[in-house]
Structures are given as C-alpha cells and as structure tokens.
Design goal:
Elements lengths: L7 H13 L5 H11 L4 H5 L7 E4 L6 E4 L4 E2 L2 E3 L6 E2 L10 H19 L8 E8 L5 E11 L8 E15 L2 E15 L10 E15 L4 E2 L2
Antiparallel strand pairs: 1-2, 3-4, 4-5, 6-7, 7-8, 8-9, 9-10, 10-11
C-alpha cells in the first residue's frame, strides 16, 4: 500500500525512521520506504547516505570509491584515470585547473590513509567540481573494512563522506564542510554472549573563513 507524500514533513519522517533502523540494512530499508511513499522517492534517495562501494579502475588497476558525486547516469568516474565506467562520452568532468588539484588531493589522501596513526589501509577518493559562482566543491571519501580472521574475531567498517564547497572573497576564502561517518562494529561470537553489533551514523556541518596567507579566522 502506497501513501500520499505531504512535502518536507514526509521526508523528515522518513529520514528519522532511517536513523532508527539498522544501518547494516540500508538498501533494504530505503527500498521499502520508497515503495511505501513513492511520491517522495526522488527527494528521499538524494538525502540518504549509503555505505560506500568500491570499483576497480581498469585503466590503472587502482581501486576507487563510488557515490552520487562521481556518478553520471549508470557510470562512475575514476579519480585516477578520469574515465567513466561504463564509458560515457558526454560525462561531467572538472575543468583542467580543477582536475590538477583533484589529482594532488587524491595523492595526498592516498598517503594519509596509509599512515599507521590514521587508517593504515582502506580506500580513499577525492572528487572536485566547478560551481557557477566561480568557486568549487568537492567530496573526500574514506572507507576501511575490518575482516574477521576467525568466527570469534571482531569485524566492522568505517565509511566517511566529507562534502565541502569554497569560494574566494578578496584575501579570504569561505568554506562549508559537512561530514558524515557511518560506523559498524561486530564484536564476534563467543559461547556465552553470541554476536554483538553496534552500528551508528553521525553528521556534522561547519563553516569558516580562511585567510589565504595561511591563518584561520573563526566566525
């Protein structure tokens, strides 16, 4: 049975329900809610964060992450080769200047995630795009999966999505950053306690002004 959508209140209710449902079953829960309220499906789908998925860049043999920000139709753009898979002739690409910055950002976060004090593995991807007002926006994606070595060993996953936009204002640059972290931890099985799951999701937004000479000014 489908229900008639009633604007923003319906979307808020759907998102509130998603926060109370197991994150390990996001795709199933999203499908069920879109079937229940089909009129709100498009807006709802654009508001839900999914665990990141990994693809292999056929041209470079390197892994990258997929999300709505590097998707065009049914194709995904790789940050390594700048090519779409499946191939797409009229796909959206960053400007030449921004592509150079995107390459540098991917190299930087690739080194960051390999550092022992941070991720020590996993997969990272950075995607940038131009804005109509002359600024630019981007997303930094990080994913780490802990695979159990035995039945009793712990497992879990970390998915973080950091979306930002920035614009120069004279000698300053203004930016807005929204970070979402999806965390799943499974303690494993024992003869007494059984399996314990602790999923969760957190989102935080911040805005700031940065002096282009290097210092930071808080609002």
């Amino acid at each position: 049975m489908a229900y008639q959508a009633e604007g923003a209140d319906t979307i808020d209710s759907m998102l509130d329900l998603m926060r109370r449902l197991p994150p390990t079953r996001i795709e199933e829960n999203v499908f069920a809610l879109t079937q229940l309220v089909p009129d709100a499906a498009d807006e709802f789908l654009g508001s839900v964060d999914h665990p990141l998925k990994t693809k292999m860049d056929k041209a470079t043999g390197r892994e990258y992450l997929t999300c709505d920000y590097n998707r065009d139709g049914d194709s995904y753009r790789s940050p390594w080769s700048n090519e779409y898979d499946p191939p797409l002739e009229d796909g959206t690409f960053p400007s030449t200047k921004l592509r150079k910055l995107e390459i540098q950002a991917n190299d930087a976060f690739d080194s960051y995630r390999e550092m022992q004090v941070y991720y020590e593995g996993g997969v990272s991807s950075v995607f940038l795009w131009d804005l109509d007002d002359g600024g630019f926006a981007g997303v930094v994606l990080l994913k780490k999966v802990l695979k159990p070595q035995s039945v009793s060993a712990p497992s879990g996953s970390w998915d973080s999505i950091h979306v930002f936009e920035t614009a120069e204002r004279g000698r300053h640059a203004h930016y807005k950053l929204t970070s979402t972290v999806m965390l799943q931890m499974v303690a494993g099985k024992s003869s007494v306690e059984g399996e314990s799951k602790k999923p969760g999701e957190w989102t935080k937004t911040a805005e700031d002004n940065v002096d282009l000479s290097g210092s930071m000014t808080r609002q």
